[in-house]
Amino acid sequence: MKIVIIGAGQIGSNLVKRLSQENHEVILIDIDPQKVKKTQENLDIMAIHGSGSSINVLDKAGIKGADMLVAVTDKDEINIVSCMIAGRFNVATKIARIKDAEFSTSGEILTGRDLGIDMMINPELLTATRIAALIRQANATDLIGFFDGRIQILGLHIDEQFNFLGQPLKDVTQHFGELNFRTIAVRRRQQTLIPTGDNCLLSGDQVFVMAETEDIPRLIDIAGLKPLHIENVMILGGGHIGVESARLLEKDFNVKIIESSQEKSAEIAKGLNNALVICGDGTEIDLLAQEGIVEMDAFVAVTGKDETNIISTLMAKHLKIPRTIALVNNTDYIPITPSIGLETTVSKQMITVNAILKYIRRGEIISIDTLQGIDAEAIELVPKKGAKITKKPLKDIHFPKGAIVGAVLHEETVFVPVGDSRIQAGDKTVVFALPEAIHKVEALFD
Amino acid sequence: MIGAFLCFLALSMIFPLLVSLYYQDNTTIAFAISLSVTILSGLLLWKFTPAGDQIRIRDGFAIVTFSWIFMAAFGSLPFLISGEIPSVTDAFFETMSGFTTTGATILEDIEVVPRALLFWRSLIQWLGGMGIIVLSVAVLPLLGVGGMQLFRAEVPGPTKDKLSPRVRDTAKILWGVYVLISAVETVLLMIGGLNLYDALCHTFTTMATGGFANYNASIGHFQNPFVQYVFIVFMFMAGVNFSLHFRMLKGDLRTCWRDSEFLFYVTLLLIGTLVLGLATGFSSTFSTTGETIRHSLFQSVSIMTTTGYVTADYETWPYVAQALIFLFMFVGGCAGSTGGSIKVVRLLLLLKATISEIKKLIHPHGVIPVRIGGKPVSRDIISNILGFFFLYILIFYVGFLVMSALGLDMRSALSSVAATLGNVGPGFGVIGPTHTYATIPAAGKWFLTFLMLTGRLEIFTVIILFSRSFWKV
Known about the structure:
The structure holds two protein chains of two kinds. By secondary structure, chain A is α/β, with parallel strands linked by helices. Chain A contains 15 helices and 22 strands.
């Protein structure tokens, strides 16, 4: 596919990287000549210097024969205009990053359809939604929904309280009765392991489980992991993400949001009903103490600076706050976050890029989600008629090492398969696999 | 990586092998041995060099330079094994002259050399013309991302425009256009009365702006004006940027006439032809006007595009004509063509930058951008070109000194350096159009071989390996 991407910011450049690795023809447009040069040197793509809303530049980028345009600059107007131009050039799919909620809410005067935009993506809102979900499901280090959120991948931190420490997984399963779940990956000392029934869990592991959303609270209960009761949430940083998170959480939780700029604080306070806005420097320990940081159950750092977020979250952990979430935008930092003690991080870039990739692959067989700090990928596959996987029950199939079936959507019913389950042609199946096993898995479904 | 290129080279030896089988010229065994030795060494190198997943920018330079040296070494095996060129120095010189599309030869009597060897000599020029690494990038999937670094180090010209987002597709397009134009030339030459073998060999060396010919009198052997005009047209085309050819083939003729490098290239050629024509015309070098025009056109195109074919002994021409031919050795083709030397676009930019400096003296506060095709050129590119030009001239001076020290007279020393560094081929004096490089002392041959490689890889790629900062971690 020939894909034009506008904006070489963090989102744009990550997207470019992923797409070019998947062998798409990628053309990147950015207004900053330095960024253009840097990307051109590091990746096998074509990078063009110029404005993404200029017809001339888009023409030079070969918009005429392009299959898709993704506009992810931080200016809504440029993204909208370039999608409109692309519409004139008959580009099939147009994706725009839109911050302004007015465009995306239904019933507005001007909708995405009017503007010729097929998918509007709001990274800040997506990130805030992920943060809110992580606060509500406070035991989870990661949460990713599949099949409209009916199935989730849940990251859990295993500690001494876990009831089945050191027992092989195949025995553990029996204790959960009719609850269906699958242990799909374990991260142990920076390494990703796709477990088999003989593996056991140790204290300190981070385990990824796939389960139906409604079963998750009981699952955690039986496992003996102490459910966290969260009442007080402190959010550091009154940017877009901070405010949206506060808005999503203020009904059910006691939210405090800290913002350093006086003007901005006033602005935020107007838009929020229950949350308390505090104006001050969030890195000052005195201010945090005054605002009762020790009584907090959750601490969320979402300022624009990764360093501030990381340091303040570490500070919060030091003060024994049970739940901490840090926004880490620089993807280069993500691999080191677990080793410095940040178990839950969110990345606006990763969330957005994954959402866009999921959209791009809709209709095709694959959709991929990556988990932070984990090498493995979750792939959505649909077996074709007569595919090897449909011929026998799962336990009799020689499934490749490093891959595991997570969940299946069979005619509107979702289930987590067990050894006796059989996958039928046309079922949407989520498979979790290490990169080297992906091709072998695909072969089974073909 | 280099191992993969060697395997590639070995595969291309199949063609001369077939030629030798067809003509029964007793070189079959030589080619068979060379092929197996090359492919074995290639596979061994491939297996025992760690396959780095990432080629850094600095690795690109080293890989390309060493690949070329290796390819010239293995490419010279058929000459050595068959005993046609017994000396290692001579064989390496001849092969490097082939790969770098120089066309300088040490063969005193070309016509007695077995046909398969001459075919091989032409084929390596053709491979070296568009670049064997570019070809590998197009064909081998294993190069993927790192291909860009190699591509950048091998393709000539100050800026490397990609024709397609993926370097692999760009390489494919370039080679596709190259093959297509070559096919057309072969057909036209056959219409002109050449047999398939001669047509192919000479197509290979025209399209690469190489200049190896199968006859002692070079193109002068073919006295048919039609054939000579076909050569003129295709030498001219080989000197044009291949991305321009691609655009033209797609029906986009306007960009061609708006391309300022192309226009400057045509202007220079016309001026050269005019000077040569007037000089030879007034001195009545040729008997008819038609001949005067044809020979002037042929020689100016041949030398400026750095092909180095000859139809007449230009050393008997008036001094002004000889001076022009010498100066044209410093021009070369357009960027992204198979021509060597400094390249038209660099000269054009140097000229424009000089004019803007003069304007700045008159208007000290003026903001005077250097433009090409209406678009301003960044200072980075200009300073890169200034550096290139200086280095080129510096190497030329040093080379002149070295060759003089080895006992060449001034005419021969100057032209031998200009002709090898610029990948032209023939020069003046002992290496003039009726002579060969055979009489140059061995040390001189090795030095000139080095100059050919430096010139083909556009100075920086090779010279960078001599800088201390390259080897520092």
